[in-house]
Amino acid sequence: MVIIYNVINAAKKLQKKYTDLTKLCIYIFVILNIFITNNNKPVKKPPINSALELIKSNDLKNIYIVPDPYFSTYINSVNFFKVNKFILIDDQIIKEKKLYSFAFLCLNNPRFAVNKKELIDDINCQREFDNFKIFKSIYITDFKIILYKSNN
Question: Looking at the chain, which runs of residues are DSSP E strands?
């Protein structure tokens, strides 16, 4: 009876040891997989910092974007946006004519939406504003930046 009991205990310990080893191997594999594939995203995020740097280099602080709750929330959370104290403006501020100039930051056929297709400019990027004229248009990956200044 004692021999059977010892054999059963030894089998249980051996089974537990292999189960623990198997779990450990799986955990190690999962963690290694995360580190190896972490930067291999099929579609990269739009280069928002590069776009904001271009706007800053043109001495503009006011930025207009197409009204969108997702993009406006995202841009407000970007550290470069906060540090440089950019201001998001809307149609009402533009209509009040209190601005001399502003930048229109437009997502122009971003890669996450259209992949690598070459398309004409997005319809949302073709906006006109009363009493403002375009003085410069800049294209970078995923963005079209249109710089406006007042006609006055």
Answer: 62-64, 87-89, 101-107, 132-140, 143-150
Separation between Cα atoms, residue 100 and residue 95, nearest integer Å: 12
Cα-to-chain-centroid distance, residue 96: 31
Residue 64's beta-bridge partner residues?
89, 104
Which of 30, 107, 29 is CA-nearest to residue 63?
107
Mean pLDDT, residues 93-116 taken together: 76
What is this structure's pTM? Answer: 0.65
CB 31 within 8 A of CB 61: no
The residue with tokens 């200044």 is: 149
pLDDT, one tens digit per residue, over 77-89 is 888 888 888 888 8
Report d(CA 142, CA 117) in Å as an integer: 12
State which H helix or E strand residue 41 sits in: none
| 8-state DSSP, 15 | H
